Amino acid sequence: xxxxxxxxxxxxxxxxxxxxxxxxIIGALRDDAVGxxxxxxxxxxxxxxxxDEADPSQSxxxxxxxxxxxxxxxxxxxxxxxxxxxxxxxxxxxxIVVAFCVWTARYTPNQAIYWQSQQYDDAAGMxxxxxxxxxxxxxxxxEQLPSWLKTSAKFSEGRIQYPNGSMIQALAGGADKIRGKxxxxxxxxxxxxxxxxxGVYTAVSPLMQKGARAIFVSTPNGxxxxxxxxxxxxxxxxxxx
Length: 241
Known about the structure:
two-stranded antiparallel ribbon; seven-stranded mixed β-sheet; 10 helices; 2 domains; alpha/beta
């Protein structure tokens, strides 16, 4: 991959390059960027766009990868096997978790990523919806990438399938929906509001023992639930170990 000095030299050559030389330089820079995206998730995020339905004047926006808390969250998602995130609204937490799932699926072969919400429609809305209308978030991220970064992913309701054998699948709530599946990454979305949190966690725990990653993300919903226990590391109100 090119270092900064090499990129600056190539950019400087563009000013005096012939059309053929400029095409070769741009092609080399593009190929370098494609390779870097596969290994550097934060660099890939610089090409990602999000959707803000509350801002009709600019509904499609660059992912704010410059924000320190999002950089740190990406680092945690990339390095920790179990991640528990208590979120608030409008912090782009759901977007970055979706982006992490998309990046992992498109650049790591044979990944089985499951996104579970209490209602299937909510999970599908995070992943993919039928083509031709409003798109799921993962689907939107893929469709908004520049043409030279696009891949031949296949979209269907609640599912994105990648040519490398990876997939992202939406699930409705319930331990029976995840039990018995072979999982690379499990996402429990709005986990504090899922009805069978304890059962789901019991089903997911053996998967983590086999190497799966688990991400539990939610707005808080009181102290007497499995999400609160995971977030605090103990039953709330109980003794500190």
